[in-house]
Amino acid sequence: MLQWEDRLAAAESPDEVLFVASDFLASLDYFDIARLPSACRPRPLTRAADLWSFMADLVTCAATSDRGPASANLIVRLLMFFSRAAERLDALDRAVQARAPAKRSA
């Protein structure tokens, strides 16, 4: 998981975070994907909202899935990665906001 964390930390834009997240999902093998409930299976991540939506679905699956320990462990692994990806998106957004000039009131 450390390689993925390093790649997220190195991402300098939301698009890069989404690329790393998509790459992470692509690294799952067929058997891993088959263990997941349909709501938690990989999907295209083209916008930050897609990542947040996927993460929300993972939380729901973690709370409701009864597919056994292998599925539960994989869902937790996905949640850990996507929590870090969401944190990175948030940090990048805060950095952009900090650099933006303060609006002056008229």
Descriptors:
106 residues, elongated, mainly alpha
Domain count, please report it. Answer: 1
Give the uncertain stretches in residue-range form.
Answer: none
Q: Tally the beta strands.
A: 0
Average pLDDT level: 90
Q: Quote the distance from N terminus to C terminus.
A: 50 Å
Name the shape in a single word.
elongated
Q: Main sheet, how many strands, which sense, barrel?
A: none
Question: What structural class is derived from the secondary structure elements?
Answer: mainly alpha
The helix/strand series, from N terminus to C terminus, equals HHHHH
Count, helices: 5
**In what range is the share of β-strand residues?**
under 5%
* Cα-atom radius of gyration: 16 Å
Helix content: over 70%
